[in-house]
Amino acid sequence: MLERLLRSNGQWWFPHPWLTTFVGDASVESVVDSELADLPPADLGPLGQVVVSPILRESVRSPLLRLPADPVCYTFNLFRLPATDEAGEARRLVMANRAVYERVRDVAGTLYPVSAFPMSRDDWRRHFGAAFDRLSEAKHDHDPGDVLTPGYEVF
């Protein structure tokens, strides 16, 4: 329904600088309280959403999805839907995402890698930690032509 609404009012083609993170149970309340206290409503836009949902860590089977160590963790997502397609505003929100991510990371939170902000090769190495070598080997074995995810600059 949201996609239909955004298409009907023209916002579907605007930038969607979304941020998706995972925060451990021990930190989620303080992170969410702090971030929401500093989040201007305009940074979400008129149709944006904040989503916080619990996840049992033991139920996740994706081998390279980085999650906090807590047995229960939470998604903490900012679905930003700005009311403008102004490039400067999109850049500002992307940089705001980076700042939120760094605060989440500082409390051992993690990133869902499709979020909208740039990551350096060092950021990716830190993100994947001990699993980075495994990921790098898989990339080398299954994508020798380097055609998959060229813009992410993981390797």
Tags for this model:
4-stranded antiparallel sheet, alpha+beta, 37% helix, 155 residues, globular, Vanillyl-alcohol Oxidase, Chain A, domain 3
Tell me the Rg in angstroms. 17 Å
- Please give the oligomerization state of what you see: single chain
Question: What does the average pLDDT come to?
Answer: 92
Outline type: globular
Strand order of the largest sheet: 2-3-1-4
Tell me the CATH superfamily of the domain at 14-118. Answer: FAD-linked oxidases, C-terminal domain
The proportion of strand residues reads 15-25%
Low-confidence stretches: none
Share of helix, binned: 25-40%
- Characterize the biggest β-sheet: 4 strands, antiparallel
What is the helix/strand order? HEHEEHEHH
Summarize the structure.
By secondary structure, this protein is α+β, with helices and mostly antiparallel strands. The protein is built from five helices and four strands.
Structure description:
This protein has 5 helices and 4 strands, in the order αβαββαβαα. With 155 residues, it is of the alpha+beta class. The protein has a domain at 14-118: FAD-linked oxidases, C-terminal domain (Vanillyl-alcohol Oxidase, Chain A, domain 3, 3-Layer(aba) Sandwich). Strands 2-3-1-4 form a 4-stranded antiparallel beta sheet, with helices on one face. The longest helix is centred in the middle third of the chain and has 20 residues, at 87-106.
